[in-house]
Amino acid sequence: MSLSQHRSDTATILPSPLPRPLLSPPCPLPAPDPPSHLLAEVLTCQPDSPSRSLSVTLDGQLLYAFDFPGSRWNPGIPSLPPWPSALETPQEILPEAQLCQEILQNISQALTRKVPEARGIPMVSVFPALPPVPGEPNTLVCVVENIFPPALDISWTLAGVPVTQGVTHSPYTPTAELTFVRFSYVPFVPAAGDVHACVVTSRRDNATVVTYWVAPDTALDEQLDAALAGAAMALGIVLALLGVILVLVTRRGRGG
Prior knowledge:
The chain is of the alpha+beta class.
């Protein structure tokens, strides 16, 4: 093998440049899932009053409720248009409600004293619709949640005295947890120290839940704010004096 041939062979084993990695185009991010909504129509029947109810909800918000005594749909939100007259007419709804009651009667006879009855403990909260201002008309809202069965009474008292004027109640609104929610409203004019109460009574066992709301004393709040501001200012002055004293003591110690 000649030198030239050897050099040629040696040249063939020199390392060749490494191949460059292929760059793939970036993958597009998946589109976010559209928000899900729940549109529900719930028909209920029970031995208590109201014996029948039918409602249409969207994400727990009552859209329409059927008034069985009046045989008409009522909007749950005042701004909603009337229910379309050709959609689920009373002639179509009433036979379904009658069938529901017949099924309930048969099931009740078969399961009474054999299956425990499901009951919910109402959770009650009371709050004003607007920030309370003494002397300005407002509305108190009582929200009752975790209702089952939908058979209870809501009443109002002011300083222990029953209040009935202007009181209104919403229909029972079904929830995704298979319970119901109901609202009650009473107009009022805030006065410092007034004690309002929303009283919720179950018709099955006469159990009562009471929730209170006390009108705030704005004058007392202003006095408290002023007192706290004065205390904070006094504390700031004291801390500043202590700081000055510590500085003087430190300087005297170094001078001595």
